[in-house]
Amino acid sequence: MNLRRWLGPSVIVATLALSGAVQPLVDQARAAGPASTPVPKITNLSGGLGAQDSQQVTADQAKGYGPVDQTAPLDFSTQPKTVPHEYVPGRLYNVQVYTKYSYAQLIGQMTYFASSLGVQCTYCHNAQNYAYDTSTKKAARLMAKMVVAANAQYIDPVHKDYPNYAVSGAVGCVTCHRGQPRMAVQYNVVPVQYLDYRYKNQKQAGYTVNSMYGVARSLGVNCLFCHNTADFISLQYYPTNQIAHRMWRMVDAINHEYLPANIKAVTCYTCHQGAKWPTRMVTAALDQTPVDPKAAHPEVHENPGAHLASGAQP
Ligand code: HEC
Ligand code: HEC
Ligand code: HEC
Ligand code: HEC
């Protein structure tokens, strides 16, 4: 029997049997870890929100940045040289990401930040000196860099590889935040080093499949949305699978390259929130006009098998 064909389904069955006992596996993985690659934060692989998750969320909330303490004295020794001691409104001093923006455009972006997170300007700024970098503002700047990079490197707003494939839209602050500065982590995604288990061991295969439940639930789809059950191993059947592959790398990059360790992990759910395309996309990286998801996706591909039946390249 072809071992690769056999491995996929058998692992699914084994994982179903094990699904109550996922956390010990995760703990083992954290303790052991692959020799060369650091194991990133994995808060929950179990795929659902149980008591453990609520505790995790509460603990994470305590670590957040929160609104800026307006009474804390300013310490200019920790600041970039461009930050003035005497702040004059209407001028730009310490803009590192939106460098091409005029003052008016920057304020437009700021209004967008505030409404995406459901906060006031003073959540991030010292009201006496908007150029002064607070911890919350620095976190927001990292987020801005992450959004620009994710859109440039991983998001395909017009689906140029699949021109007939009706998904469009870029990621903005609102895609994840949806009116809240902090949110719960749901359905964690295993790091990419566990993803391609084909040439690795059964234990890692278990992580991949556990993660798959979270992936499916994050998108509100079933396994057939991305896989051909006759062949779980080949990825070529549906574009969704290849898109998911690209998304997985994006999630890994977001968590390891852009966000500091004290920020909670981003998962498929953070953007998708139960929908196969995030309902809160924006039209372009720096143009924050929200897209009407219905207008952007006239063709709903409920049955991915249709691509196969028609024999057409979807
Ligand atoms: C979510 C955090 C956040 C919120 C809320 C926010 N800002 Fe900002 N603000 C930033 C960041 C980050 C920068 C720096 C952007 C960069 O480096 O490109 C910035 C920069 C600025 C600057 C330029 C300061 C300078 O260096 O000269 C002004 C002015 C400003 N914000 C005003 C506002 C106003 C007014 C509001 C409310 C409508 C607001 N901000 C809300 C995070 C925020
Ligand atoms: C890919 C998802 C994602 C996107 C897009 C995103 N964020 Fe975040 N952001 C997070 C996560 C996750 C946290 C951590 C939340 C927590 O600790 O509860 C966070 C935290 C923050 C915080 C700190 C909140 C606190 O008080 O601890 C700020 C400020 C912030 N984001 C600003 C922004 C801004 C501004 C944008 C757009 C430029 C943005 N974010 C886009 C996922 C995202
Ligand atoms: C949103 C798309 C998507 C959904 C939904 C999905 N998967 Fe996956 N699946 C992937 C991707 C991407 C991989 C990565 C394969 C790789 O790189 O080896 C994968 C890998 C796998 C593998 C390992 C194949 C191999 O040998 O590499 C198995 C088994 C699997 N998925 C099972 C499932 C099951 C069971 C479900 C339903 C609970 C499911 N998947 C739902 C996208 C998806
Ligand atoms: C930073 C936000 C973000 C995160 C996190 C994210 N996605 Fe996406 N996803 C998008 C956007 C935006 C689109 C539409 C544009 C595109 O395809 O590039 C999309 C589209 C998709 C599609 C195509 C849906 C369809 O109907 O054609 C799949 C499949 C998908 N994502 C899977 C995943 C998986 C799996 C994960 C977790 C590993 C994930 N996404 C995490 C933003 C995100």
TrEMBL record:
Keywords for the protein's UniProt record, in alphabetical order: Electron transport, Heme, Iron, Metal-binding, Photosynthesis, Transport
Domain of life, source organism: Bacteria
Cellular component, GO annotation: plasma membrane light-harvesting complex
Record keyword Signal present: no
Chain residue ranges for the region called Disordered: 293-314
MF term (GO), any: iron ion binding
Biased composition (Basic and acidic residues): 294-304
GO BP terms, alphabetized: photosynthesis, light reaction
Keyword Heme found: yes
Gene3D superfamilies: Photosynthetic Reaction Center, subunit C, domain 2
Name of the featured protein: Photosynthetic reaction center cytochrome c subunit
Organism: Vulcanimicrobium alpinum
